[in-house]
Amino acid sequence: MKELMGWVRSIAFAIVFALVLGIFVFQPYKVDGHSMDPTLQDQQRIYVSKLSHTFSYLPDYGDIVVIDSRVERKRSLVDDVVSHPLVALVTGKADDDHSMYVKRVIGKPGDVLEFKDNQVYRNGTVLNEPYIKETMEYVSDGKVTVPANHIFVMGDNRNHSTDSREIGFIPLDHIMGTMIQNPFTNEEK
User: Fold this and answer.
1) Is 103 among the catalytic positions?
2) Cβ–Cβ under 8 Å, residues 136 and 158
3) Is the distance from CB of 65 to CB of 105 less than 8 angstroms?
4) pTM of the full predicted structure?
5) The domain defined by 2-180 carries CATH number 1.25.40.10
6) 69, 83, 103, 164: which one is catalytic?
7) Cis before residue 28, ω within 30 degrees of 0?
8) Which residues make Cβ contacts (< 8 Å) with residue 54, sequence separation at least 6?
9) Is 144 exposed, middle or buried (0-12, 13-18, 19+ CB in 10 A)?
10) In 3D, which of 80, 87, 94 has the Cα closest to residue 32?
11) Residue 30 Ramachandran class (φ > 0 left, ψ -120 to 50 alpha, else beta)
C-alpha cells in the first residue's frame, strides 16, 4: 500500500508539473491552415514560450505569436487551464478549439498603420517583409492606430489570412505566447 501511494504521489506531481509548465512557461501548438505560408505549414508543430503571457509583456515586431481570436471576451486563468493539452485530452475537447491563431506582430500600442500600394506602412514607413507569400491585395482607405494594451497581427499569407484586419486589435492578455526555435529541427522564427 505504501508503494502504491508513492506511485500515486509521483504521478500526481508529474501531472501538476506538466500543467504548470504548459500554462505558464512553454507549450506546443499545431498550425491549422495556410495563413502563415510560406513561413509555417499547415499541421506543423511549433513551440511557444508562454512567458510573455505569464508576465504580460509585449512581443517584438515580426514575432510569431499564438493569439486567442475571441477578442470580444475577457480571458481568465480558467481559459488557460481549459486550453492546456492535458485538460483538453481528458475532457475530450482536444483539437476542437479553433479560436487560437498563429500570426505575426505588425503593430504595437500607439503605432499608426496604413495599407496602400499593396504594402503595410507603420508610422509612415513601408515595412520590409521578405517573409510574405505574395503581394498583398488588401487596401484600406484610412489609417488605424493601435490602442494601448493591444497589438495588430497579420498572417504571412496576406491574401488568405483571418487576422487583425477582420477580428480587430488583439488585447495583450489574448497573446498566448511567442514562437521559439524548434529544438528538434533548428527552425528559426
Assistant:
1) yes
2) yes
3) yes
4) 0.81
5) no
6) 103
7) no
8) 24, 25
9) middle
10) 94
11) beta
